[in-house]
Design goal:
CATH superfamily of the largest domain: CoaB-like
Bound molecules: ligand PMT
Mean pLDDT: 94
Number of helices: 14
CATH topology of the largest domain: Rossmann fold
Radius of gyration: 23 Å
Low-confidence stretches: none
Largest sheet: 8 strands, mixed
Strand content: 15-25%
Number of domains: 2
Distance between the termini: 28 Å
CATH class of the largest domain: Alpha Beta
Length: 398
């Protein structure tokens, strides 16, 4: 144990649920301890089938809580642990544990501890692909994300029983970094939804109407938000990578993006995607043939995703983007009309700003007419400044 690590003196509760990946929790405990954290472990009964509590007790130097009663020195181990924790991380988290937490079922020591804490929570799912992709699991994950829970992974790779696919628990090093971010960053326990990339609106199975958005701006914001400990959901059409501690929902069309956004109830929403305003009213099942001559493509409006978020009863702090060419006058008017708290306007006609490049030059517009131009900067820097602004607006100190 070290007293000068990044987690020196910080109190971490490590929850372990029942899966083969339970062995990784021992490595995670060691990593947390080596960063100077104090660690206490709580396991479900099923977890003890995969990893002996004696292992975690020996590593952490404390008895492991495995049931709600019968613990020496404590009549209520789950509330003791919950109050003691500065952060709780459940790794691995099975679909049963995730679902229990999502609906508030405190029937075992682990889920009871999670419900008895006010500390930020992270879960690292581990399960077979079918279970991960099941709508019930995805609903529970969306609920947890909306509650400000950081979802770490899962990754795609080798699974129990020789299977392969998404569902593998993130490596302990990735989980450690997420815990460090949650404790260090000003956005721990804050759920943030980010949209990124350009949507593609199908004409036929091979052709689409699209735009030049690469997703770089939105992904930079997602990366920075995760670094600051936020529980991030990234709804993206881009194929750029995203950090392990970001819950990623891959979409293609405006409708898919709208559906994914509708399933999340965040504290903050940042809409950096370039969403098509119109789509072909007919998506042909078969490829259109040149021999049939130029097709007549009739367009219809797509859902205004930003507007639906602005109209919610539980409305998040809302940041819109505006891609303008030339004068930013329209952006100020847009900030008012779209019902955002802040609008980030960029002049996409400049070669070093907007679509696809690594830099951006933005003007921040408030609905009351105030504007603040920012100088040209890397998108990572613009992302950090946007999150600084959000932290200030939310009253977080930095
Ligand atoms: O992805 P990059 O290559 O890094 O480029 C970054 C970017 C230029 C795409 C980004 O900085 C940006 O400006 N994103 C918004 C682009 C856009 O669609 O602007 P808009 O003025 O058309 O839309 C205004 C706002 O409404 C945006 O927040 C947009 O996400 C949202 N919108 C638009 C249409 C629609 N149907 N639904 C929406 O939610």
């Amino acid at each position: 144990m070290t007293s000068d690590g990044r987690l020196a003196g910080r109190r971490v509760v490590l929850g372990v649920s029942g899966g083969v990946a339970a062995y990784k929790s021992a490595v995670l405990a060691r990593l947390l301890l080596s960063e100077g954290a104090e660690v206490r472990a709580v396991m479900t009964r099923a977890a003890t089938d995969f990893l002996g509590p004696a292992t975690l007790a020996a590593l952490t130097g404390h008895p492991v809580v495995t049931s709600l009663v019968g613990h020496e020195g404590s009549v209520s181990p789950h509330t003791d642990l919950g109050r003691w924790a500065e952060v709780v991380v459940v790794a691995p988290a099975t679909t049963a544990t995730i679902s229990r937490i999502a609906v508030g079922l405190s029937e075992d020591a682990l889920s009871a501890t999670v419900l008895a804490t006010r500390a930020p929570l992270a879960v690292a799912p581990a399960m077979h692909t079918e279970m991960w992709e099941h709508p019930a699991t995805q609903r529970a994950i969306a609920t947890l994300t909306g509650d400000g829970v950081t979802i770490i992974g899962p990754e795609s790779g080798a699974l129990a029983g020789g299977d392969e696919g998404p569902g593998r628990m993130s490596e302990p090093e990735t989980v450690l970094e997420a815990v460090v971010a949650m404790l260090a960053g000003g956005l721990g326990g804050t759920s943030i939804l980010i949209t990124a990339g350009g949507t593609r609106e199908a004409i036929d199975p091979v052709r689409y109407i699209g735009n030049r958005s690469s997703g770089k701006m939105g992904h930079a914001i997602a990366e920075e938000a995760a670094r600051r400990g936020a529980a991030v959901t990234l709804v993206t059409s881009s194929h750029l990578p995203s950090p392990g501690a970001v819950r990623r929902v891959q979409v293609e069309s405006a409708q898919e993006m709208a559906d994914a956004v509708a399933s999340v109830d965040p504290d903050v929403a940042i809409m950096a995607a370039a969403v098509a305003d119109f789509r072909p009213s007919t998506n042909h099942d078969a490829k259109l043939s040149r021999a049939d001559g130029p097709p007549e493509i009739v367009l219809e409006p797509t859902p205004d995703i930003l507007k639906t978020v602005a109209d919610r009863v539980r409305r998040p702090f809302l940041v819109g983007f505006a891609a303008e060419t030339g004068s930013l006058e329209r952006a100020v008017e847009k900030a008012r009309r779209k019902g955002v708290d802040v609008l980030v306007a960029n002049d996409v006609s400049q070669p070093d700003a907007g679509f696809a490049v690594d830099t951006n030059r933005v003007t921040i517009c408030w609905p009351d007419g105030r504007t603040e131009p920012w100088e040209l900067a890397q998108k990572s820097v613009v992302a950090a400044r946007i999150l600084d602004l959000i932290e200030r607006e939310l009253g977080r100190t930095r």
